[in-house]
Amino acid sequence: MSAPPDPVALNKPTGVPDRIILTWSKDPTTTQSVTWRTDTSVSEGWAEISPLSEGPRFVDRTGWVRAVTEKVVTDLSEAHYHSATFTDLQPDTQYVYRVGDGRTWSPWHQFRTAAATAGEPLEFLLFGDIQHGIESHWTRLVRTAVAHAPNARLAVYLGDIVEDWNRDGQWGEFLRAGAPLHQSVSAFPTPGNHEYGETLTPNWRPQFTLPLNGIPGHEEAVYYLDIQGVRFISLNSTHMSPEQAQWLDEVLKSNLNKWTVIVLHYPIFPSVPDRDEPYQRGLILPIIEMHGVDLVLAGHDHVYARSGIVCNSNSPNPRAGAVYVNTVSGAKMYDIKAQPWMLRKAEDTQLFSVVRVSGDELTFETRTPSGALYDRFILRKVPGKQNLLINDIPPTAERLRVLGTSN
Ligand SMILES: [Fe+2]
After folding, report:
1. Which of 106, 191, 228, 281 is deepest in the core (most CB within 10 A)?
2. In angstroms, what is the span from residue 169 Cα to ligand 1's centroid?
3. Is residue 98 located within the same domain as residue 180?
């Protein structure tokens, strides 16, 4: 047995950029934000970009953007975080970029901007709580996920990325474990209860450059992003409030996108015993149903539970029902409380989902670390009516402790 690596040495910032992660903070068809870390000797950051070419000569046609640099003090170190946003890009176009200080640079990485046409096929990845075994257990899963979603434009994180909000080493694990994904696909994270101590973790706002279109006091925790006809909305479950509910109502009222996905940490419907959040449900569920949200994605429960189309209210909206998914991607696992609404469930299983939205159809696939398909359904838009749900669950046994099928 070798000793575990020293967290101070492993996470020490240097003059070489690390912890590089893409996000969208503005229009995803014409911009791209990128954030990275260095030690405090690097006083300014630059991001360099060029349209992709198959040969190496793209280096002759680059442009530069100056980053905003801020100092972050954690339990392990003092570091500079640099955040830059490329603008005036072409939609649905591949670019190469690198980050640095003008002398020391990262390797060139690649991304693609979003298409400008609503309804263009959109692929996104979904990860529930990572939290335990971040680098040791999540690394294999994220590699399989990337292989199954080569065209992903977004990677959605359902909160509790870390166990301890103020342990910088755990953020280092997340950034290292998913580095190839973070460097090429924009992250869409919502904070969980473990991202909070007295405040939101000091790693959050410097590390993620997210839209500032939410509400005061919840900056980069409550926000939304429209991409190719899908509105993604992040809510701050840990500090749910009437103000968030009102904001959600407004954001859904003005929503012209065909599809709507809500991303939050605490499930609307609990899937393990004694973890109900009735206050959140009372505030949010009527709004979800009034506006016909399609999909509600949550973490926190450390199991997998996926519903059919669930409609709870007497809403006059003929398409009030949504599909609810609670999922987990890290190593911490709980007992499920099986309930009739769960059409597919799992315990003791690390999972990721690949979601594809194309015109009137959304296809949702959940897979295990081996890549095996564990759950699949299709949602189809029907004008003026409830979405049509087509269940296509693979004929494999559910992975449940009571059946002895989980390990
Ligand atoms: Fe949680």
Report:
1. 191
2. 19
3. no
Distance 310 CA to ligand 1 centre (A): 23
Distance (angstroms) between ligand 1 centre and the Cα of 355 equals 23
Report pTM.
Answer: 0.97
Q: Identify whether residues 42 and 136 lie together within a single domain.
A: no
| Domain interval for residue 362 | 122-391
Distance 131 CA to ligand 1 centre (A): 9
Alpha helix (H) ranges present in 262-305?
278-290
Specify whether the CB–CB gap between 51 and 94 falls below 8 A.
Answer: yes
Ligand 1 centre distance from Cα of residue 7 (Å): 24
Contact (Cβ atoms closer than 8 angstroms) between residue 81 and residue 67: no
Distance 37 CA to ligand 1 centre (A): 27
Measured in Å, residue 217 CA sits from the centre of ligand 1 at: 20
Give distance in angstroms: CA of 132 to centre of ligand 1: 12
Look at residue 400 and tell me if it is in a domain. Answer: no
CA 160–ligand 1 middle distance (angstroms):
6
Q: Indicate which CATH number applies to the domain containing 132.
A: 3.60.21.10
* pLDDT tens for each residue of 38-56: 999 999 999 999 999 999 9
Q: With the C-alpha atoms ordered 263, 269, 272, 274, is the resulting torsion angle positive or negative? A: positive
Q: Is 104 found in the same domain as 139?
A: no
> How far, in Å, from the CA of 389 to the mean position of ligand 1?
29
Residues with CB under 5 A from ligand 1 (ion): 160, 192-193, 300
Could you tell me which of 343, 345, 290, 342 has the C-alpha nearest to residue 316? Answer: 290
Q: How far apart are CA 113 and CA 185, in angstroms?
A: 10
Q: What is the rounded distance in angstroms from the CA atom of residue 184 to the CA atom of residue 61?
A: 20
* Residues 185 and 134 both lie in one domain: yes
Tens digits of per-residue pLDDT, 235-272? 999 999 999 999 999 999 999 999 999 999 999 999 99
CA distance from start to end of the chain: 24
Break the chain down into helix, strand, coil percent, rounded to 5: 20, 35, 50
Give the pair of three-digit tokens for residue 86: 């490329």
Q: How many domains does the chain have?
A: 2
Residue 231: is it exposed, middle or buried by C-beta count within 10 angstroms (0-12/13-18/19+)? buried
